Amino acid sequence: MSIISKLSLTEIINGIKNKKFSSEEITKEFIENSKKSKKLNAYITECFDEAIKSAKDFDKKKDYKGLLSGVPIAVKDLFCTKNIKTTAGSKILHNFVPTYESTVTNNLWSQGAFLLGKLNCDEFAMGSSNETSFFGNVINPFGEKLVPGGSSGGSASALAAGLTPATIGTDTGGSIRQPASFTGTVGLKPTYGRCSRWGIVAFASSLDQAGPMTNNVEDCALVLQAMSGYDPKDSTSADKKVDNYISNLTEKVKGLKIGIPKEYRVENMPNEIDNLWKKGIDYLKDAGAIIKNISLPHTMYALSTYYIVAPAEASSNLARYDGVKYGHRAKGKNLIEMYENTRSEGFGDEVKRRILIGTYVLSSGYYDAYYLKAQKVRQMIKNDFDKSFNDVDAILTPSTPSSAFKIGDKSKDPVSMYLNDIFTVPVNLSGLPAISVPAGYDKNKLPLGLQIIGKPFDEQTILNLSLAIEKRANFKKNLEVWWN
Amino acid sequence: MSKEKFDYFINGKKNKWEVIIGLEVHAQVLSKSKLFSSSSTKFGADPNTQVSLVDSAFPGMLPVINEFCVEQSVKTGLGLKAKINLNSIFDRKNYFYADLPQGYQISQYKSPIVGEGEVILDMPYGTKKIGIERLHLEQDAGKSIHDMDPDNSFVDLNRSGVALMEIVSKPDLRSPDEVNSYVKKLRSIMRYLGTCDGNMQEGSLRADVNVSVRKIGDKKFGTRCEIKNVNSIKFMQMGIEYEAKRQVELLEAGEKINQETRLYDTRKNATRSMRTKEDAHDYRYFPDPDLQPLKLDKSLIDKLKKELPELPDQKKERFIKEHNLSPYEANILVSEKEISEYYEKVIKESDKKLATNWIIVELFSVLNKKNLSISESPVSEKNLSSLIKMISSGKISGKIAKAVFEKMQEGDRDPNQIVEKEGLTQQSDPKELEKIILDVLSKNQDKATQYKSGKVKLFGYFVGEVMKASKGKANPKLVNDILKTKLK
C-alpha cells in the first residue's frame, strides 16, 4: 500500500486542497489498490475510467467548496447510481441500470466526491457475513478465511484494505456496525430519518438507514455531514436541521453520563469482549464521563422481534422483483409460472427464507400472534431506551458478541448467524443512532469494536464519545498486505 | 303513494324474497397528479406515457402523499355528512399481478380517512337514507391488455397509482331502482364538490356490488356474493336482478350460497363465479412503513367545510322555498350540477315558473331525443331566457314560442331575431284583433246564431278561425276576451 492511501479521508481532502497531490493522483492510487485486490472480491462494479475522468475534471476546475472535494468513493451496491449497474448483490437485479441517483450518493457527489465503484454486499442486505451475495463472498483483509461481516461487507473490506478512502453502507440490523467492528473501522448508523432512503434498494423500510464507514471518527463526522439531510421525496426522512458534526467534534466529554446495560452481558460471550467493554468504560471514565448501570429489560426479545418485523417488510418490499418490469426474467408458460421461475432463479436461499418468514407472519390468522405482537414488543424495546435516556446521555456496549468468524462457520445455521446482531438490532428497532468504534484486538489479533448508542438525532454526542475512545484506545490497523 | 307499491321482491316458487344490496363504489379522485407521484392522470394518453419511477415501482422509489387528493377525499366525506378521521393509516394490500408493479396496492384498511356518513335518496315513495360505512383512499392498478397479441399480454401503467376513493355503503339498498338512485346521487354530490368527474365510460366510477337475499320477515342477512367491478348503472341493475334470482333458486332448491366473487357477463346477462372464499387472496395487509400515519389538522377540515359548495339536497330545499317549485321539479333541476346551473342562469332574467316548465318539458325532450347532456344543449341559457321573456311579456304566444324554440336549436339562434325576421310578433292590439274577429263572425253568421242559442261549444271554433286568420299571431287571451263580448 502506498503512503497516500494510508492517509485518512480528512488528510486526503486537505492534501488535495493544499496541492500536495492532485485528485487524479490519489484516484489512481485507489484504483491501483483496487485492481491488485481482486482476492477480496470487494467490488461488484468498478467505475475506474469514469473516476479518473471525474478526477481530471476536478483538477481542472479546482473547486474546493465541497466537504469531499476531489475524493473518489466506492459505495455499497444497494445505492442506486445513475447509469451504473445496481444489483443489491442479487441475481434478480444483475442487469439493472437505474436512470436515477439515490439522494444520499447524490449528496456526496454534490460535496465534490465522485464514484469509484459499487461494493459487494449480502443479497438485498440480508446477511451478517457477506456470504449471501450472488457475486460471491467477500474476504476480510484481517484473514483470508474470515468474513468481513455483513451486509456491508464489501464496503468494510474495501475500506480496511485501502481500496477506497471512505464508504457508505446501510444498516437494517447492524449491517454497518458489525462489519466495521470486524474490520477495525468506524461505522455509524444515523437516527432513522436522518438520511434519505430514496434510491436505496429497500430491505426493511422501517429499519433501513444509510450511514458512513470510515477509517477514523473525524472522517465519520465528515461523511455523515455530507450525506445527511431532509428529503421531501422520503416521507420518513426528518425535517430537522443537521448539526455541524465537524466543527462540534470534540473529545471533551466530561460530565456526560454513560449507561452500561446489564442485559448486554450475554451467555457464552468471550471474556475478551467483556474485557474490551471494561476497557471502554475505563477510557470514558478517564475522559471524565460518569458511568451508570442501567437496565434495558426487553433486550432479550429484540432479535426475535427483529426477525418478524424485518422479514415482514422485506416480503412486501421484494414483491416488485417479479420479472415484469426490469431485472432478471425467467421463462414460463403463463404469468404465474414466469413469476415462480423468475423468483426461484433470481433470489438466493437467505432471501427466500426471509420472504417465506415474512409472508407467514403477515398471513391472516398469524398476523396478530406474530406481526402485531412484534410491533408491540418493538415499542417496549424503544420505551426501555427512552426511559434510560432520562438518566444517561449515551449507552456503551460491545458492537458484536465475537470477532470476525470464519467463512462457512455460520452459513449453515441461520440462527447462530442472526445471533451475531444481538447488540445492534435493538438500536434499529428503536430508530436510534449508534456507532461502532474500533477499541482493541482479541487473542487472534482480530479487531473488536465498541458500540455507543445515542439519543434520537444526537449523533454529535456519540461521535464525541467515540473520539474520546479512539484517542485512548490508540487502535492501530496492523495490516500486512497479503491479498495483492 | 304507498310504499308497498314500489317494494322490490323476488317471487320464488315457495316464497317472496327481499334483496339486500351494498355497494363499494370506486371513484377516481379528480386531481392533476397521482396519489403518491406527480405523474399526470389525464385520460386517453398513449400507453405508458404517464408513468413515473414510483408508479412503476423501481428499486428504492418511495411514495409521497398528494395532499390535494387528501383534501378531495375529506371534501367528499363532508359531502356525505361523514365523520372525518384526524388520524388514518395507509396499508399495503399484497398480491401479485402483472399490472400491479409494487406487488402491493397502497390502501387504507383498518383506519380509513372517512368514517360513517349518509346519502339521502328521493324515491317515488319518499326519501330514503342510505348509510355510508366508510370512505378510504387507495391507488389504482394499471391495465392488462390480453387481446392485442396471441402470445403476449401487455401492460399499460398510466392508471397505476391514480387516486381512488372507495366509498362503502351499508347494506341498506333494497332494489335495482334504489341502486340507480344511489349511484346517481353519489355521483351528483361528487360532481357538485368537484372531487370526481363521475365519468363511468372512462372508468372514473365503478362499483363492486354485494347481493344477498332473505325471506320476507327474516332478520338475518343471507350469505352474500360480490359482483366485481361493474362500470354502468344498467349493468349493476341487471346483475343484481340476475344474481338475486340465482340465489333464490338455489336456496329454494335447498342448496347453500357460497360466499364468492362473481363477474357480470354483459353479453349473457349472467354472473359467473370468479373465485370462491377458499381461494380468496390473503392480502397480508400491514401498515405501509414508507408512509407516516396521515394526520389531519382540525383547522383544515374547518376550512374545507367553509368552502363547501351548495350540495343537491340544500339546493333542492332552497329551490322549493325560494322559487316555489314542487319537490318533483326541484329534484330534477338539482339532479346534476350543470342542470341547476343552467336553470339558475335562465331565471336570472326570466319567469321562474315558465323557465322550470320550459327546461323540464321542452328542453329535456330535445336533449333526450338528441341524446345530449345539458352542457351540450343546442339552446344556451341566454337565448332560452330571452324566449321566456317574450312569452311573459306577451310578445309571442306559447304556441309561436314552440315554433321559435324549434328554430333556435339550429346553431343556438337568438329568438328575438327569429321573431323579428319572420314577423312572428303576437298581435296584441285590441283594435286590430277586433277587426279580424268581426270579419270571422260575419263569415260565420249561422254559427254565431247557434252559439247564441246555447251551442257554447262553438266558442273554440271561433278562436281557431281567428288564430288561423292571424296566422297564429293573435294574442289568445285578448281573442278570448273580445270574442266573448262580441258574442253576447
Written account of the structure:
The complex is a heterodimer of chains A (484) and B (488). Chain A is α/β, with parallel strands linked by helices. Chain A has helices spanning 9-17, 23-36, 48-61, 103-110, 153-160, 177-183, 217-227, 271-286, 302-317, 335-346, 349-362, 368-388, 414-418, 425-430, 459-473, and strands spanning 43-46, 72-76, 114-119, 167-170, 186-189, 210-214, 257-261, 290-294, 394-398, 434-441, 447-454. The longest helix of chain A is centred in the C-terminal third of the chain and has 21 residues, at 368-388. Chain A is globular and about 65 Å long. The mean pLDDT of chain A is 97. Chain B folds into 3 domains: 4-304, no CATH class; 310-422, no CATH class; 430-486, Arc Repressor Mutant, subunit A (Orthogonal Bundle), CATH 1.10.10.410. Helix content of chain B is 38%, strand content 19%. In chain B, strands 1, 2, 6, 7, 10, 11, 12, 13 and 14 form a 9-stranded mixed beta sheet that branches. In chain B, strand 1 (9-11) and strand 2 form a beta hairpin. In chain B, helix 14 (459-469) crosses helix 15 (476-486). Chain B is elongated, with a radius of gyration of 30 Å. The mean pLDDT of chain B is 93. The interface between A and B is large, with 42 and 30 residues.
